[in-house]
């Protein structure tokens, strides 16, 4: 349950923020690998519902931040996208990365439970 609370971190917000502020892709890496590892561990422990709810919460927080900073944020840095559009795009990319990771973890857990006496 404690790992599930990590989803309140606005992962999809950190990618664009670090890119704009520091010129670093570290935020995107944290986003993809952090959420990937978190989802994998939750899938291995048999909590796929927490993964779905967590992704929605993390996206909602990230999107809310993106909307709250308005047009002045980035000042055209992310053209042709707005910050909120970028958060949506990065979140979709996250799902593309996360779905195979979670499916692998679920299949691995199912194999382990079949082989256990």
Could you walk me through the main structural features you see in this protein, from its secondary elements to its overall organization?
With 117 residues, the protein is mainly α. The protein has one domain. It is 74% helix and 0% strand. α1 (11-22) packs antiparallel against α2 (26-44) and α2 packs parallel to α4 (83-115). The two termini are 27 Å apart. The mean pLDDT is 80. Keywords: Membrane, Transmembrane, Transmembrane helix. The chain crosses the membrane at residues 25-43, 55-74, 86-106.
Offer a few descriptive terms:
elongated, 117 residues, mainly alpha, 74% helix
SSE topology string: HHHH
Largest sheet: none
Gross geometry: elongated
Strand content: under 5%
Query: How many whole angstroms does the radius of gyration measure?
Result: 16 Å
Q: What structural class do you assign from the helix and strand content?
A: mainly alpha
What percent of the residues sit in helical stretches (DSSP H or I)?
Answer: over 70%
Can you count the beta strands? 0
The structural domain count equals 1
Transmembrane segments: 25-43, 55-74, 86-106
Keywords: Membrane, Transmembrane, Transmembrane helix
Describe the SSE topology.
Layout: H1 11-22, H2 26-44, H3 48-69, H4 83-115
